[in-house]
Automatic annotation (TrEMBL):
Protein name from the UniProt record: Putative aliphatic sulfonates-binding protein
A Pfam entry, by short name: NMT1
GO cellular component terms attached to this protein's record: membrane; periplasmic space
Keyword Cell division attributed: no
Leader sequence residues: 1-32
SMART domains: PBPb
Organism this protein belongs to: Cohnella phaseoli
PANTHER family per the UniProt record, alphabetical: ALIPHATIC SULFONATES-BINDING PROTEIN-RELATED
Keywords: Signal, Transport
Function: Part of a binding-protein-dependent transport system for aliphatic sulfonates. Putative binding protein.
Subcellular location as annotated: Periplasm
SUPFAM superfamilies tied to this protein: Periplasmic binding protein-like II
Amino acid sequence: MTASSLRIRALRKTGLWLLSASLALFALTACGKDESAGSSKDTTTVNIAINGGLNLLTIAKKKGWFEEAFEKANAKVQWNEFQSSVPLLEGLVSDRVDFSFIGDGTVVTGKAANSPFTVISVTGVQGNQNSVIVKPDSPIQSIADLKGKQIAVAKGSSGHIFLIKALQKNGLSESDVKIVQLQPDEANPAFQAGQVDAWGIWDPFVTTEVSAGRARIVESVQTMGFVAPAVMIGRDKFLKEHPDLTALYLKVYQQAVDWVAQNPDEAADILATEKKMDKALVKTLIENTQYINDPITAETAEAIQSTADILLESGTIKEKLDVSKVYDNSYFEASKK
């Protein structure tokens, strides 16, 4: 064999070795990338939104219960906070909200606007003390007296829906009053300064203003005998992609419901600190609130359907809404397993 042939064979052997080494290195690198990508892909962000007021999500956030539970499921929590339901639903449309709670009126107006959410449990039936309040010395004594008056309200909120229902029950409509669109942080100083005649609002604002002697209640969901469910909602795409995390979310929320019932003093401490409110007032609010986490019953669905029919009649929504299509109890049932 010539020297030239030996060199060619050596190069071939060397080339094959380099090719094998390159392929092995590529395989290892690809494997590493796949593992890294898989790890990143499997970590899910759960966007939880606090929708104003004194609520159990504020306590759960402080306690870290959701973070603890979701970490075990390879998920992380992102918190957001909104003052009322309308901006919250905007956040849901932009994928910044996966779970939160809203009132029955917002369920109706939201679904009428094709908001992508489903009701997954009931968190209350008292309407969070939705009321119409006025200054203590106001001549307004009844809903009928509101005719021609300026009323501050966050449009689309549960307070707004209560106002529509209260007006309708007294033979009036929104066109008979002057609605002043204000979020709670804007309406509060406007009300105290006498820039509006009345305020359609919910707790803790109602109890805070009344307890401070700055307001009195004209009518509330309780005095008018309205059933006003508050419900937990989930973003549709998240629910379909992560039914297991949805069930886990409801399981943790149930933990919060149970804990508050057993620890009202500590709950009052947390909420008073977080909301910068008087602890005694907060404790009163907690005692007057029935926190629940229940499936959607026929009675609840009927109450929401009644709201939908009233809002259709008032012209707030344009088409009849079938409430049976907006809730799903399967996630709640899974949370109990």
